[in-house]
Design brief:
about 50% helix; about 150 residues
């Protein structure tokens, strides 16, 4: 059988497309499996501490954890909760995650976001930096402008 150059090119393109599909499918499967492990680790730890989280998601290089916070807690307790959530989040995360964001929904409608770099969280967990130093590295952003009326 005599194959023309056109047929050889078509066969080569077909094989290339199959290889690309296999690679992309494998990457998607591995990323999904990795995030499921991260999700399970975080959710188990938060449930054990009775933290009322509503969502855990991945966005780019960031893990976002959204939880509900009663308003009758002292600020020190709230900061401790954020530190605990962040410390829980860095367990089993892939190297591609650089930030952890905790979105805090207070019962009165207030919303606050606390963000920290993974390397700072790991330093805190390993006790390489003090709690005070770690808390200074957390970026806190109010997401609402006072209580809802």
């Amino acid at each position: 059988m005599n194959m023309t150059i056109k047929n050889k090119i078509l066969i080569w393109l077909g094989v290339s497309i199959i290889v690309i599909v296999i690679i992309v499918t494998t990457v998607i499967w591995v990323n999904g499996r990795t995030f499921r492990l991260v999700y399970e680790t975080i959710s188990q730890e938060l449930e054990a501490e009775e933290i009322d989280f509503t969502k855990i998601k991945k966005k780019g290089d960031t893990i976002i954890i959204i939880y509900n916070q009663p308003i009758d807690f002292e600020m020190e307790d709230i900061l401790s909760t954020w530190a605990y959530i962040m410390a829980s989040a860095v367990k089993n995360i892939p190297d591609t995650i650089n930030k952890i964001v905790v979105k805090c929904n207070f019962e009165n409608g207030e919303k606050v976001e606390a963000e920290a770099e993974v390397e700072d969280i790991i330093s805190f967990v390993k006790e390489e930096i003090s709690t005070e130093s770690f808390l200074e590295k957390i970026n806190i952003t109010p997401l609402t402008e006072g209580p809802k009326i």
